[in-house]
Amino acid sequence: MGLPRFAWTVLAALSAGISAALLVLAVGLARGDAVRPNGAGLGPGGVGALASALSTDHVGSAACASCHASEAKAWLASQHAQAMTIAGPETVRGDFADVKVEHQGSRARFFRDGPRYMVETEGRDGKTAAFEVTHTFGVAPLQQYLVTFPDGRLQALPFAFDTRPKGEGGQRWFHLYPDQPMPASDPLHWTRSQQNWNFMCAECHSTSVRKGYDEAQDTFHTTFSEISVGCESCHGAGAGHAAWAAKGADPKVAGKGFAAVAAPRPAPDWTPDPATGSPAHGVARLPGDEVETCARCHARRGTFSEDWHPGRPLADTHMPALLSEGLFEDDGQMRDEVFNDHAFKQSLMYAKGVVCSDCHDPHSAKLKADGAQVCAQCHLPERFATPAHTGHPPGKSGEKSPGEKTPDCISCHMPARTYMVVDPRHDHSFRIPRPDLSVALGTPNACTDCHADKPASWAAEAVERWHGPNRKGHQTWAEAVHRARAGEPAARDMLLKLAAEPAMPGIAKATIITELQRFPSLATDAATTKALADPDPMVRVAALRSLAGTPLETRWRRASDLLADAVAAVRMEAATLLADQPLAGLPAAEKARLEAAFAAYEAAQRLNADRPEGRANLASFLLRRGQPAAAEAELRAGLAREPEATPLAVNLADLYRGQGREAEAEQVLRRAIALAPRAAATRHALGLSLARQRRYAEAVEQLAAAAALAPEDAQYAYVHAVALQSTGQPAEARRVVAEALARHPYDPQLLSLALQDAMQARDAARAAPLAQKLSDMRPDDPEIARLAARLKRP
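User: That's the sequence. What structure does it adopt?
Assistant: Structure tokens below.
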């Protein structure tokens, strides 16, 4: 793979021992000093709207090279160094020789206009126009392209170039969403917020990014210190370190001149134990260690602060996702694109203190040994690379034995999924293959990834023959989470047991606490309260979220201390939970603490005011703070920027409802439906609005539409059924409830409605199992328990 021109320049400089001062000039492109082709401005502020913002604290990667030549050479060959570049002959990999591509009604033509790289495609207004490609994004196995707009937005095109060799299927343009049309009205269209570089991409493809969103003008003035991922992306601002080196590199100076460094790890001993083939001992890890540095970009998370520096835990500046349904499988395997960190933090390796650089060179990002040989650093091959362990004859990974591929550590313990059409990513949870869970729960497994022509039951039987029936591994929550998401009451006790396990990975425990809220009980409440003091900040965040909807007095008593938590994500979760707490009457210290938390939460949402979710969060917070006019302004501003953002429309309509402005609420919802007719939430909200206006026939029609558009939402079916009952259509209501219960057999509201109907019909045979299910769901409700017992009697 070739390197861009600036990379070759620096490599040559390193070989010649050129001075650091000249290296600064050599990597001008890396810092973003060059203007885009033809010298056109990059936003409302001209070139400076997207250019180097090299502060006095940042020195640039070139300044590091004179002392760290080998590290700089490795970095220059890495994908980090080429994460983003100015579009030019040395950096563009795609074919711009007047190539035309199509995808489900979308078309694009890639061509050259003198020195400029151009694309002719559909713009935000749905009309075809020519756009200049200003930047490349990534390098292998695909390269994306960015277009700069006059308001400072950079948008990622939907067609990417497959940079793999032609023999591997590459050297072609392809659409990143191959299975769905992408009209200009779609939120995923390349001109819209989901493809916006300034928010979605910049932080992890450039160094020291400042988004620079201007709310008043709805423009961006985004800056960075280097256009790609440079040394200071991971090490922090380097001016202090450079000064320390220039003064003689005194080893007694803390942090070697850096303002902050990743938390150190005690020296590990990874010597394999001959009895097990694996290291006998682990090592402690501290918050803000190396893994947290990598997690800043290799985790599924949202950003609430741009003030990251090494040594801060991820949750101090970002809000990580949990192992949520849709993002992860029930057992924690990656499903959507989740970027490794969440998977790794489920692993036994993480629990033992392993860090990313134990396997990957931190500068080249390559493995420290070829393929599965990297595992042999800590695990004895003579024990694991054997037929007794693998059940397969020996051979190289991927080498075909009769009818099969020979597995290795990676293929079995790090199965890959392909994202962005051509980019395979390995799951870093290092789990034991569990085809038996595939049989029971439908989760994927590594065995049938290779043996695609065989059922999971075949693989499960084989694994049991080799290793016996009792093989749980480190990740033990799959069945409990699966049952919980199905609503099965039996999941409660399983989740409670898991929540009490000291060795449970924090990210999994936070997910378990979240799933436990499906089953309210005294035991659930006790587990949640205990989780408020858990060492892992995301467990504390999950526990705080579970308090939503409880009385203010309860929330204040349990959560107020966490307003002073050591981790910002916890403080912010406490702030939003307590947003309706009046300041008047609080002791001075508690008032100050609450005000500080409120200010931090509002600042975090202001940082993301370019996003519909940022506006929605801020509006909800302001409304609970007793500021309805300010909340309305946020919602309206968000809708002005993103008219198709249906949650904003629903929230604005609800605000109007609370103020008795029902006609305005209806107008907002009808506009939203016209823009996004298949959004269930707006139709549901409109149905409720029409019901409040006593326009019952219209209301039932909209509620029915919502339930049909989102059958996965039991609440929509429940409200539709209630509306049918209320308008004298009991038989139709009964049908709706029965169909919904077939999809959601443990939904308490649907069960209550069905039980009520059965009781009114004096149908004890139908009522008895419904009452028992409800009793199982609500074990602390004596009334429903008595009813279930009475209905059981012959």
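The two ends are 78 Å apart (CA to CA).
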